[in-house]
Amino acid sequence: QVQLVESGGGLVQAGGSLRLSCAGSGRTFSNSFMGWFRQAPGKEREFVAAITWNGGRLYYLDSVKGRFTISRDNSKNTVYLQMNSLKPEDTAVYSCAARRDSGNFVYTVPRVYDYWGQGTQVTVSS
Fold this sequence. Notes:
By secondary structure, the protein is mainly beta. Helices cover 0% and strands 48% of the residues.
Protein backbone atom coordinates (compact mmCIF):
# COMPACT_ATOMS: atom_id res chain seq x y z
CA GLN A 1 0.00 0.00 0.00
CA VAL A 2 1.25 3.51 -0.88
CA GLN A 3 -0.30 6.72 0.38
CA LEU A 4 0.45 9.97 -1.41
CA VAL A 5 0.07 13.56 -0.20
CA GLU A 6 0.72 16.54 -2.47
CA SER A 7 1.69 20.02 -1.36
CA GLY A 8 3.10 23.21 -2.79
CA GLY A 9 0.23 24.45 -4.88
CA GLY A 10 -1.00 28.02 -4.82
CA LEU A 11 -1.67 31.20 -6.75
CA VAL A 12 1.12 32.63 -8.88
CA GLN A 13 1.40 35.19 -11.64
CA ALA A 14 2.21 34.17 -15.17
CA GLY A 15 5.94 33.66 -15.55
CA GLY A 16 6.31 32.62 -11.94
CA SER A 17 7.38 29.32 -10.40
CA LEU A 18 6.09 26.71 -8.00
CA ARG A 19 7.49 23.47 -6.70
CA LEU A 20 5.06 20.68 -5.96
CA SER A 21 5.92 17.86 -3.61
CA CYS A 22 4.39 14.42 -3.36
CA ALA A 23 5.21 12.65 -0.11
CA GLY A 24 4.69 8.91 -0.13
CA SER A 25 4.44 6.33 2.58
CA GLY A 26 4.85 2.60 2.34
CA ARG A 27 7.75 0.31 1.68
CA THR A 28 7.15 0.10 -2.06
CA PHE A 29 7.38 3.84 -2.77
CA SER A 30 11.05 3.75 -3.74
CA ASN A 31 10.32 1.00 -6.28
CA SER A 32 7.32 2.76 -7.80
CA PHE A 33 7.02 4.48 -11.12
CA MET A 34 5.67 7.95 -10.36
CA GLY A 35 3.61 10.34 -12.43
CA TRP A 36 2.11 13.82 -12.18
CA PHE A 37 -1.25 14.55 -13.76
CA ARG A 38 -3.45 17.63 -13.87
CA GLN A 39 -7.10 18.31 -14.37
CA ALA A 40 -8.60 21.65 -15.26
CA PRO A 41 -12.31 22.40 -14.78
CA GLY A 42 -14.39 20.77 -17.48
CA LYS A 43 -11.43 18.88 -18.92
CA GLU A 44 -10.13 15.34 -18.67
CA ARG A 45 -7.19 14.41 -16.49
CA GLU A 46 -3.96 15.05 -18.42
CA PHE A 47 -0.52 13.50 -18.08
CA VAL A 48 2.18 16.03 -17.16
CA ALA A 49 5.38 14.18 -16.23
CA ALA A 50 6.68 10.83 -15.01
CA ILE A 51 9.84 9.33 -13.56
CA THR A 52 11.15 5.80 -13.21
CA TRP A 53 11.90 4.31 -9.80
CA ASN A 54 15.56 5.34 -9.85
CA GLY A 55 15.13 8.61 -11.71
CA GLY A 56 16.89 7.19 -14.72
CA ARG A 57 14.19 8.13 -17.20
CA LEU A 58 11.96 11.17 -17.32
CA TYR A 59 8.89 11.78 -19.44
CA TYR A 60 7.03 15.03 -20.13
CA LEU A 61 3.97 16.42 -21.83
CA ASP A 62 5.20 18.35 -24.84
CA SER A 63 3.72 21.64 -23.67
CA VAL A 64 5.68 21.57 -20.38
CA LYS A 65 9.06 20.45 -21.74
CA GLY A 66 11.74 22.96 -20.86
CA ARG A 67 9.54 24.53 -18.16
CA PHE A 68 8.77 21.67 -15.76
CA THR A 69 11.20 19.25 -14.14
CA ILE A 70 10.28 16.06 -12.33
CA SER A 71 12.64 14.55 -9.78
CA ARG A 72 12.57 12.25 -6.78
CA ASP A 73 14.39 11.64 -3.55
CA ASN A 74 13.77 8.06 -2.47
CA SER A 75 15.51 8.64 0.85
CA LYS A 76 12.69 11.08 1.61
CA ASN A 77 9.95 9.14 -0.19
CA THR A 78 9.20 12.29 -2.15
CA VAL A 79 8.66 13.21 -5.77
CA TYR A 80 8.88 16.81 -6.93
CA LEU A 81 7.57 18.82 -9.84
CA GLN A 82 9.43 22.09 -10.36
CA MET A 83 7.30 24.36 -12.52
CA ASN A 84 8.86 27.45 -14.08
CA SER A 85 7.58 30.02 -16.57
CA LEU A 86 4.04 29.18 -15.59
CA LYS A 87 1.21 30.09 -17.92
CA PRO A 88 -2.51 30.60 -17.25
CA GLU A 89 -3.21 27.39 -19.18
CA ASP A 90 -1.25 25.48 -16.52
CA THR A 91 -4.04 26.20 -14.05
CA ALA A 92 -5.41 22.91 -12.75
CA VAL A 93 -5.51 20.50 -9.84
CA TYR A 94 -2.23 18.60 -9.89
CA SER A 95 -2.11 15.04 -8.58
CA CYS A 96 0.68 12.54 -8.20
CA ALA A 97 0.25 8.85 -8.85
CA ALA A 98 2.23 5.67 -8.24
CA ARG A 99 2.45 2.44 -10.17
CA ARG A 100 3.82 -0.64 -8.43
CA ASP A 101 4.62 -2.91 -11.32
CA SER A 102 7.30 -2.51 -13.94
CA GLY A 103 6.95 -3.88 -17.43
CA ASN A 104 5.20 -2.48 -20.44
CA PHE A 105 2.54 0.13 -19.89
CA VAL A 106 1.45 3.46 -21.30
CA TYR A 107 2.53 5.94 -18.65
CA THR A 108 0.27 8.71 -19.96
CA VAL A 109 -2.88 6.73 -19.12
CA PRO A 110 -4.28 7.38 -15.63
CA ARG A 111 -5.76 3.90 -15.16
CA VAL A 112 -2.35 2.20 -15.18
CA TYR A 113 -1.51 3.83 -11.85
CA ASP A 114 -2.41 2.11 -8.61
CA TYR A 115 -2.37 4.94 -6.08
CA TRP A 116 -3.32 8.61 -6.20
CA GLY A 117 -2.95 11.64 -3.99
CA GLN A 118 -5.78 14.05 -3.27
CA GLY A 119 -4.38 16.80 -5.48
CA THR A 120 -3.20 20.37 -5.00
CA GLN A 121 -4.57 23.44 -6.76
CA VAL A 122 -2.31 25.49 -8.99
CA THR A 123 -3.71 28.78 -10.26
CA VAL A 124 -1.76 30.98 -12.66
CA SER A 125 -3.06 34.51 -13.15
CA SER A 126 -2.45 36.52 -16.29
